[in-house]
Amino acid sequence: MNRLVFATHNEGKLKEMNVMLQDLGVEVVSAKEAGVHEEPEENGSTFAQNALIKARFVAARTGEWAVADDSGVTIEALGGWPGIYSGRWIGDGGYEEIVNGTLEKMKAIPPGKRTAVFYSVAALVSPEAHEWTFEGTIEGEIVESPRGVPRPKLVYDVLFQPLGHDRTFAQMTDEEKNTLSHRGRAFQRLKEFLKQGGLSTP
Known about the structure:
Shape: globular
Number of strands: 6
Strand order of the largest sheet: 2-1-3-4-5-6
Order of helices and strands: EHEHEHEEEHH
Strand content: 15-25%
Oligomer: single chain
CATH class: Alpha Beta
CATH topology: Maf protein
CATH architecture: Alpha-Beta Complex
Number of helices: 5
């Protein structure tokens, strides 16, 4: 087995996944490249449930190994929002709507009170419907204005500054971000599983 279908239409996520797994000799293609143009309804109540919904959907339609992730940011001062709704809680989920809307909701919250946690769960599903999940988290804060160059559809990169760092994800290189990020940590656990022969599991 030398191919994984990533249940995403997000070019930024696909690029991160390919960078992360490039030394394993596994080709990572998007759902669209594998012939899947529909998307399932993400009606889970957790990141893990939504990731599994997407991976199951693609695995069932392609008959191939499928991987998906569900990620989001929880902001303490907003009662844990947006969480699983991170991509669709403001407007149509576009860059300007989410960035400006998030900053507007937090305009009265001072530095030191803007703590946030990014979560990511990667789900792997085999053609025989075996399932695994891998979680990654990172603590940080929401900065007071966007900084850095945004990556495609990775809106919060310009707002999230990891704890102990003075730059947002958007101010870091792909390599720097992947060693720190919630998604990078979840994918790293997935990668270790694959290294240990996960793809040959019957």
